[in-house]
Every structure is written in C-alpha cells, then in structure tokens.
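G.,

No rush on this.
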Amino acid sequence: MTPHPRLWDVAIGASAAAIVGCGVYATMWPASQWFGKSLIAGNNADEIALTFDDGPNGDTTARLLDKLARYNVKATFFLVGKYVLAQPELARRMVAEGHTVGNHTMTHPRLLALGPVATKLEISDAQSAIADTVGVAPRLFRPPFGGRWPYTMAAAHAQGLMPVMWNAMGMDWRLTDPGRIAARLLTDIHHNRAKGTASNLLLHDGSHKGLGWDRNPSLGAVARILQSQGARAKFVTVESWL
C-alpha cells in the first residue's frame, strides 16, 4: 500500500530532523566520541582540572597566574596562536610556572565552516607558534566552540595532539556574575563526583573577539572554586589524564 503523501512527508521530515540532530551531537556535544576519541576527564572523582581558553590576554592572564600561584594550583591553558605571538612573555610564564599549554588554533575560527586544508593550517600554524615561543610542543588540542569533523580530529592527530573537551561549564562567555559562574561549575563538579569521574572545568581568560577582553567575572569564579574545595579536591592539569 502506498503511504498517504502527507504521512510520507512527515516521515521524511522526521528522518531528516533525526539526522541533523545526530550530526549536531557528533560535532558539538562535549561527550561525543563519534568522530574519534576526545579526552574528557580522569577517573579520580576528587580531581579537578581548571582549563582556560582564548588566551593569553594581557593583565587578565597575568592576574590569573598570580592567583593560581598563591594557591599553588597548576592549570591548563588552551592558547590562540596569534595571541601567543603578540604576548610571548605570558605564554613563557605559563610554562615556567608549571602550567600546561595546549593548542586552540591560530585564529580561533569556527572549524565546522572550514575545509580540511584550512583546518590543518589553523592547527599546525598554532602548534608551531606555541612550540617556537615556549620551547615545548603542546600535546593537547581544544577545538574552538567544541566543533569537530572527522578531518578536524585527523588534523589534530597529525600534529600529535589529543583533542580535549570538558564536563563542567561555567558559561563565562555569557554570564557576568562570578557567583553564578562558580555555582554552575560547582554543581557540575558535584554531579561528576556522584558519577565517579573527575571534573574538567571550561573557563576563559581571553576572548576570540580580541585582546584586552574583560574576564574579571571568570577570575572571581576561579577564586570561589579554589576557596570552596578545601582539602578534598586535587587540582591537576589535563595532561595528567593522558
């Protein structure tokens, strides 16, 4: 029996929506492993990794490094290559003080809009810029906006990089209240601990929109996280989970 035309259209529409939904999940959702392995977090529920994207960013990054030093906490910084070239002293300070630096592409584009060749150049140019500046080749890669295609993963692997996502998100690119940012992260830490996994916190010390971006709310949230976790938490770098 031939299906009714309208029912057939509905079925096709539903199938198309399902395919689109699966595609969005595969490319954007932090937990997705469809296009290849991404590192999320370790298995020690007491471990917390503070990660910061889009730097280095002038005085904001310098003050963040001062704060981390006071608490003797090491963090992971995913650096934009063009900002590293503009502020090499900050990138070198990160490494000198024991922090881990990762690759966050050269210019922070939306990789889902780029083809394989441009994606490869974004990653390889950043890798060279960071390695030449700090003397250490990054081992970690965080795709801008979390976007991944199969060729994104291939380009990262070609540089010896492990893609890294997150499982705790402060939404500090939108929220301006340090308390709200910290509250979101602490809630995610609680949920991760309940599941028996470590927490990989996504924060920003810079912005893809340009240098000098105000990240004081993020710094305030970091202070609350460091103060609230006490002796139980073990702050680690993402590299320790490789």
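When you get to it, here's the other one too:
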Amino acid sequence: MKRLTLLVALVLGLVGASFAGTVTLNETFASGATFNGTLTFTPDYSSLTAVNGVLSGGTYGVDPITWVWWPGGNYASGFGPQYGGNQIMDGIGINYSSHGTLTNFITLTWDFSGAPNLVLATPGGSGNILSGIGGNNVNYNDPMVSGRFSAATPEPGSLILLGTGLMGVMGAIRRKMVL
C-alpha cells in the first residue's frame, strides 16, 4: 500500500509540475472588449513563452491572440527586478515588419514578485516603454480597466486521461500484490 501511495503522489506531483508556469488571463478594456486566454511563462515567471486566447468585443470582433512578440524576453525589467512585460498578438509571428496580417496586439505588464501568484501592473506609469499610456492595453490606445491572472485549469480530456492512467496503474499494482 505504501508503494501505491508513493506512486500516486509521484504522478500527481509530475502532473502539477506540468501545469506550473501556465496561467489564465482575463482582461476587460475601456472599449468593452475582453481578452481571455492561457499564458505560459518561463519558470521564474519573468517572461512569456506562449499565448492562446481571444480578444473579442469593442471594435475588434473575435480575434485569436496566438503569439508572443519576443518569447522569453522582458520589456519591463528596467523598471524593477519584479516586473515582466511583453506584447501578445494576433496572426502568425515571424517578425513585426514582415507580418502583413497583424491587426491587434495587447501590451501586457505584470508583477511576479509573489509568483506563482501574478498581478497585472503598470511599472513606470505613463513612461512605460510598452506604451505611451502605460502597460496593459490594446494597440496602445485602449487601456485595461480590469484584469486578473488565475491558475490554469486542465482541459477535461487531460483529466480523464490522467484518471484512466492512474486507475490502470493502481489495478496493475493491486494485481501484482494479490499474486
């Protein structure tokens, strides 16, 4: 029984580790538009590596936001060691100048001093290098009015797969113990 308990703890630890660094972001902007998506961060939460979300409402329609301007980069580090910042964008990211389909981007700045609990922040106020009106806005002219990070929730299919695998492992161990 001790082996089974140890195995279950190990598997759950590995699953928990796989979700570390992934959070959900929900923002509302002055135009009434919203962004809802999942962000993946570097292990220390100082920079973004991936995004998958949707900007909707306002004048933006329904716009998938699927790439990070500079994965692993941090535009806000000059404002203090606890700040992260980057831009998340629509289209396919190659580089800004050759990206003919870029329509919208969201500047994003956060405080990661309490990581994994992140807080949206605007370091440097109006002097923020991400925008003339501060961080956390759409296209530099639609400021965020509310927003929050929360822990990412695994997809139901992933949880079913995990549960099925755990039941199989427990069944195999039980069978081995009976024999």
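The radius of gyration is 20 Å. The chain has two domains: 1-21+156-179, 23-151.

Enjoy the weekend,
O.
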